[in-house]
Amino acid sequence: GERQLQVVTFTAGSEGLGRSLTVANTATMLARLGKEVLVLDENAGNDNVAAAFGLAGRFDLFHVLNGERYLGDVLIEPVAGLHILPAATAVKRLGALSSSQQHAFIGAMQQLAKPLDVILVDASTKHPFGFSPLGLAAPETVIMLSASSASITEAYALIKKVSQSFARRHFRILINKVRSQAEARSIFDNIAQVARQRGIAHLEFAGAIPLDESLRQASQLCRPVISINPDAPSANAFRDLAADLPHWRQGES
Hints:
Number of helices: 12
Largest sheet: 8 strands, mixed
Shape: globular
Structural class: alpha/beta
Order of helices and strands: EHEHHHEEHHEHEHEHEHHH
Number of strands: 8
Strand order of the largest sheet: 3-4-2-5-1-6-7-8
């Protein structure tokens, strides 16, 4: 049958939650499962998906949309089946894509040698309108948070803002740096209950990434954790997330 493209945005209420590292590891797992994956990386500097592989891009999606560069000049391919498209400049300068830029983007995607299975948007938290314009185009949004009360409060504030401003009513929750699955479930149950009772949104549990020394070591080496320790708890969590993600359908578990 036809390949069905899955588009998922990863975002958070604040920085420092390991979002880009999570996207890098999830994308690697998807590629190892035989998926063709594109990461739209809205972040600049040393805290983005390319940097998680020890790489840096010279150009940006903005150069493609303006006809200054071909897609092949911009894409970074750290592992087979995984393409990273730097987009930090594009999202800073574009509140929304013009018609010509939309056509340029579609045309650029058609330059890929193989059709895509999954697009992951690693959304910046610094948009002037409060949410990524690329992220709004994705039917699935993953909100990342940790066990800290500040992170939970910031995540809820983001959910409320996007729900009220953009009429988004469905989000998936991914909890990072947890000590146990029981802790993650308790955090999720609490925030989901509040969002439901106040009529803000329907939340679903996407999973939890445990505190893991192997993940910290892999991050320092700029390598996916699966290549350092395939049996690490975090590697298993990313493996589960990558296995589930292609089957997500909006509003369904």
